[in-house]
Amino acid sequence: MKSYFKIIISLAIVMSFATVSFAADTVKIGILQGFTGPIESLTPPMAAAAEFAFNEASNSGIFLGGKKIKAVRGDSTCVDAAAATAAAERLVTVENVVAILGPSCSGTSAAVISKVSAPIGILTISSSATSAALSEAKDNGYYFRTAPSDARQGQILAQITMDRGVKQVAITYTNNDYGKGLTESFGKAYKKLGGKILMTAAHEDGKADYSAEVGALSASGANDLVIFGFIDQGGKGIIQASLDSGAFSHFIFTDGMIGPALTKDLGKDLNGCFGTMPGGESAATKKWKKIAESAGIATDGPFRGGSYDAAALIVFAAQAGNSVDKTSLRDHVMGVANAPGVKIYAGELKKGLEILAKGGEIDYVGATDVEFSDIGEVFGTYQEMEIKGGKFVSVKVH
């Protein structure tokens, strides 16, 4: 019996050392996305794109001398600031992640920046938070984003709307930073171009019935309805109520509404509707789409390439400083994202890691033509999307 217990104890000691060894050779990075909530259909491909980049770096055998990356998921919900903050805190204090990719949405990003990223000091890169207000966030230099600001998206959508001959609209927006910011930027640009806004009204996500909101918007006399909302909740509910009542049949969208979850159910009734989402048709984006499709990552929605890029930037920042120290990670992001250096595209993470390991410099172009401004934001391009044959297709890049 004593021998039996000795064997058990010995095995426990060996397993303990193995666990320590595994931990020492593993770097944890958080993926904080809205896995539940109003964009839950958009986030799985985003997370998959990020994890694809982490796996690519791990499998190179070069990342920090052969360390592996373990992605740890957290749910930001997209709408619950307290839940997003708690999830971020858990990732940092319990899971011991060295950086966070996310959060998905603007309001939760603002909360995480003020409660976690800035005070704790942890690199945070969002691939989909687009509110213009985030440009003014007091982040102590720890917050970056690979999605362009809505200040520009609103302007581009306004120009597209006027170019398509739509001279007056009604607007409904989700009642948060994302919706308010887009309403402001679009409204200002649209009016400047000569357009008329007959009514602007907020809507709350999570309601079962939006007939009252649609009725009020229809009473404005507008034929075209601009929806700054979310694909899995209020935005889609507004469309369904509009179609059911016959109040509206033509809609204008931004990125939070573009994806197969909308066209799968309603596509046949939405031909001719249009909108914008970040992306382009450059050599870099075309290369990314081929890589993503071969890996089974859908490219028919926004923020997938930007998620791959956010992951790659975290990886390269660690390699450039040869450290996962919080300050080192923060201080090396800009250096790997911008010139000078060897241009690195999606699928070339091993090449970039080799250059950095030898003391060289890289200029990460990635999947979305990354180039940071002095506050850590991309300038970005936008795709003009239109529903044709019941599906979203890209018709032009702006």
What fold name goes in the CATH topology slot of the largest domain? Rossmann fold
Radius of gyration: 23 Å
> Helix proportion of residues, in percent?
40-55%
Side by side, the strands of the main sheet go 7-6-8-9-10-13-14
Biggest sheet character: 7 strands, mixed
Approximate strand percentage: 15-25%
Average residue pLDDT: 93
Tally of DSSP β-strands: 14
Instruction: Label the CATH architecture of the largest domain.
Output: 3-Layer(aba) Sandwich
Q: Which regions contain 5 or more consecutive residues with pLDDT less than 50? A: 1-22
Number of contiguous helices: 13
* Global geometry: globular
Task: Provide the domain count.
Answer: 2
SS class: alpha/beta
Order of helices and strands: HEHEHEHEEHEHEHEHEHEHHHEHEEE
User: How far is the first residue's CA from the last residue's CA?
Assistant: 76 Å
CATH homologous superfamily (4th level) name of the largest domain: Response regulator
CATH domain class of the largest domain: Alpha Beta
Describe this structure in words.
The longest helix has 23 residues, at 2-24. The model is unreliable at 1-22 (pLDDT under 50). The protein has a 7-stranded mixed sheet with strand order 7-6-8-9-10-13-14, sandwiched between helices. The chain has a 5-stranded parallel sheet with strand order 2-1-3-4-5. The protein has helices at 2-24, 43-60, 81-93, 106-121, 150-163, 177-192, 211-218, 234-245, 260-266, 283-294, 304-321, 326-337, 349-357; strands at 26-33, 68-75, 99-101, 123-126, 143-145, 168-174, 196-203, 224-228, 250-253, 274-278, 342-345, 362-366, 382-388, 391-397. The protein folds into 2 domains: 27-148 and 284-359, Rossmann fold (3-Layer(aba) Sandwich), CATH 3.40.50; 151-280 and 381-397, Response regulator (Rossmann fold), CATH 3.40.50. The protein has 13 helices and 14 strands. The chain is globular and about 65 Å long.
